[in-house]
Amino acid sequence: MKKISIIFFFFILPLAFADLQLGFYASSCRKAESIVQKVVQKRFNRDKSITAALLRMHFHDCFVRGCDASLLIDSTKNNTSEKQTGANASVRGYDLIDDVKEAIEAACPSTVSCSDIIALATRDVVALSGGPKYNVPTGRRDGLVSNSVDANILPGPGSPIPQLTQFFAAKGITTEEMVTLLGAHTVGVAHCGFFSGRLSSVTGRPDPTMDPALDAKLVKLCKSNSNGAAFLDQNTSFVVDNAFYKQILLKKGIMQIDQQLALDKSTSTFVSNFASNGDKFVKSFASAMIKLGKVGVLVGKEGEIRKNCRAFNKRN
To answer: Which residues does the record give as Ca(2+) 1 binding sites (predicted)?
Structure first.
């Protein structure tokens, strides 16, 4: 299958973007972005599933307190952090962020934020997976708070579309952009616990919104292994493309939240447009990812630049 990508031109001079800048580290840490890219490339070469992991990490971080790397903080005896909450319990890729941070700290101590590392690493892995190449403005600062209760707002796999739309709108993201961002399910998997409630083996009757052949396949999978996992995109499972939309139009969405995108009147038109036009999807995905990356950012003297992404800096 032909991979479609769009390239945005890079500029030499930093350009302001909602208090962030393209080329923010051009003078303070010239090799920052190349270091990120090198570490991500090495991991991607041996683990294609890292794309889904970083996309999920980026989304879950930005949708709680904003893109401030609060998700990366480890719990302590005095505080249970965001990553310990149910919706975040299966987020992974923290070790990759650690590797990038260690390499950057060796070159430019206390200069590059963990939140910028997440955004840059996600950008790079999307491109490696055949998705769009896009610019990421940088200059984010790391947050000073990470509480598990804050992450309880994250939507679940069965969230109804009106509730989901409202959740995204609260972050300044339109319905079309929401549909675009959920296109990240073109990579990754869902474990049986996220979709078993739709299966005929559980409900006792076929789900009219699921293709019968898919239902039979998933029933068999989850019967043999209750913790089994299914690819959300069953055709091009490791490629960032528009195949996901084509499948949900055929009632082949694994999770309820995905299938409803194709059925709800407020979102179905966007699904059809992306399914029929792969170029439109990658362009829209690039724009939506850039917008996602500036949700609730800390800039200037706000927050801090962590030395260790898993812990707040020690106070004197």
So the answer is: 61, 64, 66, 68, 70, 82
